[in-house]
Amino acid sequence: MYSLSSCWNSGRHTDGRAMLREIRDLGFEYAELSHGIRLSLVPGIIEAVEAGEIKISTVHNFCPLPMGVNYPAPNIFKFSSTDRREREYAWKHSLKSVETAERVGARLIVLHSGQADLKDYNEPLEELRSQMKAIEATAVELLAEGKQDSREFRKNHDQTEKLDRQFHKLLEEIEYKRERRKEEPMQLALEIIGRLAEEAGRRGILLGIENREAVEEIPFDHDLPFFLDSLPEAVVKYWHDCGHAQIKEHLGLIPSHVMHLETLAPRLGGFHIHDVILEKDGAHDHCPPGSGIVPFAQLATFVKPEHIKVVELSPGVPAEDVRRGYEIIRSLWGPE
Questions:
Q1: CA distances from 131 to 102, 148, 153, 162, 165 (A)
Q2: Quick check: 293 and 258 in contact, CB under 8 A?
Q3: Measuring CA to CA, which residue among 271, 209, 223, 228 is closest to residue 246?
Q4: Quick check: 122 pLDDT over 90?
Q5: Which of 41, 198, 223, 284 could bond 16 through an S-S bridge, CB–CB 3.0 to 4.6 Å?
Q6: What's the rounded Cα separation, in Å, for the pair 159 and 222?
Q7: To 5 degrees, how large is the angle CA 331–CA 335–CA 336?
Q8: Residue 289 DSSP label
Q9: Do the Cβ atoms of 4 and 19 come closer than 8 Å?
Q10: Tens-digit pLDDT profile for residues 210-250
Q11: In sequence order, what are the residues at sequence separation of 6 or more whose Cβ sits closer than 8 angstroms to the Cβ of residue 117?
Q12: Residue 94: band (very low, low, confident or very high) from pLDDT cuts 50, 70, 90
């Protein structure tokens, strides 16, 4: 089952039926209702589904958006919040996602689990990685020019070692703070997701715990097996976002994208499929498959016919690139 996420086009539509027709016209039999579905789009979505124009593979929490929210907001209410009212709002609007999934016949709801109380470390990590990449590129140029014995090359080498020390020191700081601050948000999130699993399970709907790209978001990658083992296996699955995992590898937060997926493959429910392009200002995700550095061919080993495969692209991606990326991933992962 391949699907296209409505994150690609929901922002430019006022009619949900027209939004889904655009996805269908690109060759997709299924669509994911992403976390940017405004209440005004829902009637048209129901019309399209009931008319048999398209099927819905998945729903991304929160769907529809809370009343008055008109922008994608998957983290507007956190399961992990220490504020009881915020957790209750997260519960209430997640139940609405369950109701939406049941109404449109979706198989799974993708969830963000919350976050620990940490500052944003992604930006300083990305800045260090960009500096390191630039210095590495200069070293390659100097070697190509036969300047390995030059003063410039030695200076480059010293800069590389300095940045490497800074980078690993920052990683150690991140790991130390994450381990100290993860327990309470993890337990709070597990409590609500456990309750949600009971509701979803009664209706034959799965939940997918998504790996996240931000350093502070839980569960942390090494905690995912424990987190999933604390929830009912029949209902709660692992949801693998290819772009997020690739960014985590790029930032040094996981050793290998492929090994990470291999560890979690037994619990795998599906994928968000998008590529990552490395540019001077950092890593950019939600790009079409085949345009960046995600090793889709290596990941194919873990893809099964029963997995839900959702192409999740930026709204700025042209329709022809959506089609091309879809063709590329099907050629690597199989047509179904």
A1: 48, 20, 16, 11, 13
A2: no
A3: 271
A4: no
A5: 41
A6: 31
A7: 145
A8: T
A9: no
A10: 999 988 999 999 999 999 999 999 999 999 999 999 999 98
A11: 181, 185, 216
A12: very high
